[in-house]
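Need tokens for this chain, all 270 residues.
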Amino acid sequence: MTETVGTSEYVHANGLRHHLLSYGRDGTPLLILPGITSPAITAEFIACRLAERYRVHVPDLRGRGGTDTPPAGHYTLEHYADDVAGLVEALGLRDPVLLGHSLGARIAAAYRVRHGAGRSPLLLVDPPLSGPGRDPYPTSRAAFLAQLDEAARGTTADEVGKYYPKWPRRELELRARVLSTCDRTAVVETHEGFEREDFFAYWRRLSGSVALIRGAESPVVSDSGVRELAESNPDVPISTVTAAGHMVPWDNFDGFRAAVDNALAVVDER
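Here are the structure tokens for all 270 residues:
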């Protein structure tokens, strides 16, 4: 089992047994929602730094890590958003900050709209803008399946590094150890959701304490994507982290942390 400095626990929510890691003792609750192939422990380096100010919780999303794996047909944004609502209730969190990366950012937006959680500050980090009538998600289904196949046979940090050349060695080694805990069906159906489900349907309805952070070199939230986001919802501030692609905190953590601090200062004023 991969070692962690976080506290591991299990809670029942939305009909599933969820595994999560928690960091820090006091402070405002903050829930980190990871990406499509990122079990909770891969966000530990983020959680540990944010735990200086927040009580941080990071769940394994359904079909990842130690969380239950439901059958096919149960990996829509609605399913994920309802999981978040159940976790917030089960953990007794009051208006937690939600920080979602990639898939997690889409989930956070869906949670806000679907559950009317208007007082929970949202930080959306490089959400996939793909959807009906739009360009496909930049990482293909085949590329995800190739990584899962490598993990199933036993991948290495060097092999992972081919996909993520900017990552610190520790994070490459960690991903090599835990990627195999991501269920194949969960990843495939979630990737299909990137093409089928419309993020902008949620984005247009967001208001209040919301901010979006993207990587300057990200193909997921491109410059043209930023323009469309701003036109679709001009009230949400958008910031750009230099020297970072889609995996913003992994590529440039210091820039990411500064963007998070600035965004929280803005949303706190709203």
